[in-house]
Specification:
Elements lengths: L1 H22 L5 H21 L5 H24 L5 H21 L1
Helix pairs in contact: 1-2, 1-3, 3-4
Subcellular location: Cell membrane
Protein name: Guanidinium exporter
Pfam families: Multi_Drug_Res
């Protein structure tokens, strides 16, 4: 169950990162509120997952999900450039997450 919670924590991290963009420096009230809710939810879920997962594993996966998701969201939602270097970098982050998981078993 901790893994499911951790995945939702990572997805919430992506949501608040996207929300930051839409909040336009917290000048948009609805987007700002949604961003804050997602931020709190992300931290709470990460904290819950840390009850049974090692810090290095949980935090690494959480950050990785957020980073990968934010890069993909930036490309899809905001037209940010996606090139070979970014794609390889995402794959390296994914490999790092897998490596952390394998070393923590």
């Amino acid at each position: 169950m901790a893994w499911v919670i951790l995945v939702f924590a990572g997805l919430s991290e992506i949501a608040w990162a996207i929300g930051l963009k839409y909040s336009a420096g917290f000048s948009q009230p609805v987007a700002s509120l949604i961003t804050i809710i997602c931020l709190v939810l992300s931290f709470v879920l990460l904290g819950v997952s840390l009850k049974s997962l090692p810090l290095s594993l949980a935090y690494g996966v959480w950050v990785g999900i957020g980073t990968i998701g934010s890069v993909i969201a930036g490309a899809l939602l905001f037209g940010e450039q996606m090139n070979a270097v970014k794609l390889v970098s995402i794959l390296l982050i994914m490999a790092g997450i897998v490596g952390i998981k394998l070393s923590s078993s």
